[in-house]
Amino acid sequence: MVVTTTTAASDEHLHCTFASRYARTSLPRFKIPDGSMPKEAAYQIVNDELMLDGNPRLNLASFVTTWMEPECDKLIMESINKNYVDMDEYPVTTELQNRCVNMIAHLFHAPVGDEETAIGVGTVGSSEAIMLAGLAFKRKWQAKRKAEGKPYDKPNIVTGANVQVCWEKFARYFEVELKEVKLREGYYVMDPAQAVEMVDENTICVAAILGSTLTGEFEDVKLLNELLTKKNKETGWDTPIHVDAASGGFIAPFLYPELEWDFRLPLVKSINVSGHKYGLVYAGVGWVVWRSKDDLPEELVFHINYLGSDQPTFTLNFSKGSCQIIAQYYQFIRLGFEGYKNIMENCMENARLLKEGITKTGRFEILSKDVGVPLVAFSLKDDSKYTVFQISESLRRFGWIVPAYTMPPNAEHIAVLRVVIREDFSHSLAERLVSDIEKVVRELDELPPRSSVKTAHVTVDDLHRGKAERPHLKKTISETERDICSYWRRISDKKTSGVC
Ligand SMILES: *Cc1c(COP(=O)(O)O)cnc(C)c1O
């Protein structure tokens, strides 16, 4: 028998990664390594590091799809190497996108007729969709002002203070002033009357949200349309409405078909929806639909022909994957109206169950409404002993990711927890979550009273302005510096971390 010793060089031929040198060397983090490594080792190492990420299925912070049928996973893997922008090379994929746009426009009651034909485009998500819709409004408004010989350098947009961060991005990136209607305690959506009051001759559009990110509540688009129509008549302006239906666009048509929020309202000129939220596709797809060709200025559409025949494109990025578009089409034909309706009803039912369980603990006030996106947003009735942030932290121990955040102005003093109910969050998981919340609350009850919890009311501004010098906080700031630091971090990027 020949006995050989294993040298470092012969490691490459071993199939057991954990017996190789790759298991005992730290990986380069700043520079591409000089040499290669075997594929098995690379797979194992990357896979293992990723084990430390949270479990997406237990990530109750996100609206974004975390489960699809294996048949669709297969379609996705089969199309993972198709660049969506190669429309001439992949005409069928382009055709599937167009069919999806048609179906969504129909779902949102786009008018059908010779002069009004809806158009739309697939995007990476609602954020890109909103940038495009916003740009179209800005261009239209500028063209009109130019034609009238009026200044066109101070465009603004009116929204609620509850808007998702992508609206703030749009405003900053494309130099449009964001005029936000403030919230107040007990009212966490845009007040249509106040919004219309803020509209002036420089307003490019009013953006309403169907499914506020914070509480899931639908804004009253019908009333907004009514009030704005009246104002337009009085002033001679023609301020339009955009509906950000990122989460609610695939809820309302199935659960509340009578609710008028879409193209049935004449001032609604464009709508966005996230295919990767209740459209039930993995991350990477959104949609924007315009009521008619007239609502999308032609100068924003680029015609490219170097990939083949003339292709009109209106997107921010050039290349992107095709598989999300293909997956969206799969979901539409696989589930049909009936399937979507059943799934949304199940989500609502599980939201109700969770809400009941949370209410039964007696500790929480429910902020989300019965009509809206299936989520449960709740705040502590009494936060003098512990805060929602501590509850969120404690739930992590059981694997649950439940975000806690403070409300936007002027309701910053309200801090809430939010659980988003997705398709793959079942009845039994809802029961488990309720019992884990009960456990956490009981544990926190046992803790000695800590005045530190008052940090829930301390904002960065307060500390800078010295407001935190109030006697009941004086002691606690030094005591709980760590708490506050992590709280700062949370509130300073509350719109980008976890709450999406
Ligand atoms: C999620 C969300 C967005 C952003 O959508 P993405 O698809 O994640 O880019 C915008 N607005 C609202 C109301 C949302 O809920």
Automatic annotation (TrEMBL):
PTM-bearing positions, type N6-(pyridoxal phosphate)lysine: K277
Tell me which UniProt keywords the record has, alphabetically. Calmodulin-binding, Decarboxylase, Lyase, Pyridoxal phosphate
Biological process according to GO: L-glutamate catabolic process
> Which Pfam families does its entry note?
Pyridoxal_deC
Could you confirm whether the keyword Mitochondrion appears in this record? no
What catalytic reaction does the record list? L-glutamate + H(+) = 4-aminobutanoate + CO2
Q: Which SUPFAM superfamilies match?
A: PLP-dependent transferases
What are the required cofactors?
Answer: pyridoxal 5'-phosphate
What does the entry list under GO cellular component? Answer: cytosol
Q: What does this protein do?
A: Catalyzes the production of GABA. The calmodulin-binding is calcium-dependent and it is proposed that this may, directly or indirectly, form a calcium regulated control of GABA biosynthesis.
Q: Which family does it belong to?
A: Belongs to the group II decarboxylase family.
Report what the protein is called: Glutamate decarboxylase
Annotated source species: Sesamum indicum (Oriental sesame)
